[in-house]
Design brief:
The chain is about 30% helix and about 20% strand. The chain is of the alpha+beta class. It has 2 domains: about 200 residues, Ribonuclease H-like superfamily/Ribonuclease H (Nucleotidyltransferase, domain 5, 2-Layer Sandwich); about 35 residues, no CATH class. The strands form 4 sheets. Strands 5-4-1-6-7 form a 5-stranded mixed β-sheet, with helices on both faces. A 3-stranded antiparallel β-sheet has the order 8-11-12, with no helix packed on it. Strands 9-10-13 form a 3-stranded antiparallel β-sheet, with no helix packed on it. The longest helix is centred in the last third of the chain and has 25 residues. The relative contact order is 0.14.
Length: about 280
């Protein structure tokens, strides 16, 4: 089986009703004013509000609904300006049940919440679940995947990856000089990240045991795979916890394992104790 065919077998079932959004953002870096006697003075120096000359901000958001081919491209220089840009991002996230991205839980989502709620004063978003592909790599593979950046890991795993890299000088020109060429390049770069992230998401699917539950029309919730929404089949092996065992099932498409939380069997009445 080719790599492309293997990835395709890990894709979500078409009947999945969850709205899954693949997301990536690009930012304009902040600028601070620092006074120092020696370069060592700058190590771990606290940056006070008075030292900030320009706060960092999100300037580009690219996103894609998992089940649709087109990538949504939003930028602060679009018609309507920054306020309209943030409103569009807010409306997009309002519709999502699951948001997937690389380092999204520590970067993209907190950044966007600051932009939308603190800067723009937009109302709170409805709750959604987050799948962070970087967290999956760290938790499941640890040092077994020594390079965990989106571009590096995609190249290692043979996943179609981006062909450009972030250029802060290009972002500066795009914002301050209104360079059309740099704006198009940065939006294309962000779009590439979204496509690479979806490929990585599919690649990692069997290794996401705590993936948010998927709702699939016409499927038995006790037998549907929580990762991809396809059917599962029982396995002879049981899942063994500390004192209980559970029935285990394996997905026929993504090969992910799951356990049923009903009717567990107790394998021991004895528990060790410490001092």
């Amino acid at each position: 089986m080719s790599l492309e065919a293997e990835f395709a077998s890990y894709e979500m079932a078409e009947q999945v009703r969850n709205r899954v959004l693949i997301l990536d953002v690009e930012r304009l870096p902040g600028i601070t004013r620092q006074f120092w006697w020696d370069r060592k003075d700058l190590q771990r120096r606290y940056i006070s509000y008075e030292d900030v000359e320009r706060h960092p901000r999100t300037t580009i958001v690219c996103a894609k609904w998992y089940d649709r081919p087109e990538v949504i491209q939003l930028a602060e220089w679009d018609k309507g300006g920054r306020k309209q840009f943030l409103r569009k991002v807010h409306r997009l996230l309002e519709q999502a049940d699951i948001v997937c991205g690389h380092f999204i839980s520590e970067a993209d989502i907190p950044w966007l919440k600051g932009d939308m709620h603190i800067e723009a004063g937009l109302p709170p978003l409805p709750p959604f679940k987050v799948v962070d592909t970087l967290k999956v790599l760290r938790q499941q593979f640890k040092s077994g995947a020594p390079f965990k950046s989106l571009d590096a890991f995609c190249q290692i795993a043979g996943i179609p990856a981006k062909t450009d890299k972030y250029d802060r000088h290009a972002m500066e020109r795009a914002v301050t000089d209104k360079s059309v060429e740099d704006r198009e390049r940065l939006v294309a770069y962000c779009t590439g990240d979204v496509l690479a992230t979806q490929g990585l998401y599919d690649f990692l699917r069997p290794y996401i045991p705590n993936h948010p539950a998927l709702f699939v029309d016409g499927k038995d919730k006790l037998t549907v795979c929580n990762r991809c929404g396809h059917d599962t089949e029982p396995t002879a092996k049981r899942y063994v916890a500390n004192v209980l065992t559970y029935s285990m099932r394996k997905c026929v498409r993504c090969d992910g394992y799951s356990r049923l939380s009903i009717e567990p069997e107790r394998i021991s009445a004895m528990r060790g104790v410490g001092a």
